[in-house]
Specification:
The protein is of the alpha/beta class and 450 residues long. It contains 15 helices and 19 strands.
Length: 450
Amino acid sequence: MISISLVTLGCPKNQVDSEIMLGLLDQAKYQIMDDPEDSDVVIINTCGFIESAKQESIDTILEIADLKDTGKLKYLVVTGCLAQRYREELLHEIPEIDAILGTGNFDQIVHVIQDGVSSQEQKPGLGGINEPIFEYRKDLPRMRTIPGRTAYVKIAEGCNNRCSYCIIPFLRGPLKSRLEEDIIEEVAALVTSGIKEVILIAQDTTVYGVDLYGEPRLASLLTRLAKIEGAFWIRIMYSYPDHLSDELIQVIAREDKICKYLDLPLQHASDRILKLMNRPTKQAEVETLIQKIRDNIPEVVIRTSLIVGFPGETPEDFRDLVDFVQRIRFDRLGVFTYSREEDTPADRLAGHLPEEIKEERWDTIMAMQREIALQNNEILIDQEMEVLVEEIYSKEEGIGIGRSQWDAPEIDNLVYVHNCHAGIGEFVKTKIVDAMEYDLVGVEINEFTK
């Protein structure tokens, strides 16, 4: 039997694509392996969003390609965003690649492997690249790869925004939403299987449904998802502020299953830089929106992501951003230094900044945010919260590790729960007794499992 392993790079949206490929391969009776060194076929699902992600993808391809000489690897497939963008360059520079698939046709993975592995001669580039448009159907199988009881559900693909720095519309195509019924069926099946946290993702979740229904339908979708029986969290990621409506805010406030957590990628605060980024929302509008969210959802946690060192960012623009962050006091915040991406309008702008200035500005924001994060966490001491246990750190000492509804996986706080009797995938009521910059320490109050 042919053994296959898959390496996933990049964001949760890529993770969903990988799980679909693994589901198709499992359905076709291939042996799925965890370790590429033990596999006849390796698939690398690449990321091509920013320069560091591209470099990681290339390094991984080269590392895996070496297994053709040192391991049992016979066939190497490259998929994902980097493949979509640089097909010819990859095939020319890395001849060990046997097949390549893009973001619009990765569901052809079984055919590509069957054709390629059975062939007596190498067919470089087998599979090819289609238009970057993919339709997620409820009949596509998925093999979950994330440990624990969390699952990502992609509610739409592609993006109609035209942020000047972003290559995503080129890599993933225009917005293509899934039918509400399709998503509801998938979530219901996941909950039935034991999933305790469903994370809705898209390039921009707030515009979900515009292409299908002529209007944003995230509020409607959430209302229907909250009616699914069972105890589970619904988390929303990548909610751009432009379409965050009053109706959506009210649904999040009203429905207990929806995490009181909003991920608002704002990117900057200077109106001049926002205009250069082709972002339609101005600073004053964002502040008004954040105040409205906090007024209507008092327990809400707001995460944002920012870009520093954008072309033409003056010291005054950066000071505007610093003042904004100090004033808003985001609960969660991530910062990226601007990465030049060819074929984007931002790349053609004047005033690109030296890397050392970008790094200095990154350090400034992050140092300030560490203080804010610690102060926000210290407020939680002596408070009680529900924690989803994801790992048993020490069974002997009774220490579990989990997250609250206010923390997304991989990027936000962890909660270390002492005297923990709950198992992985169970909710436990926890009293917070200590706080660090990005993590919390608590004690189980009483065990209860949902």
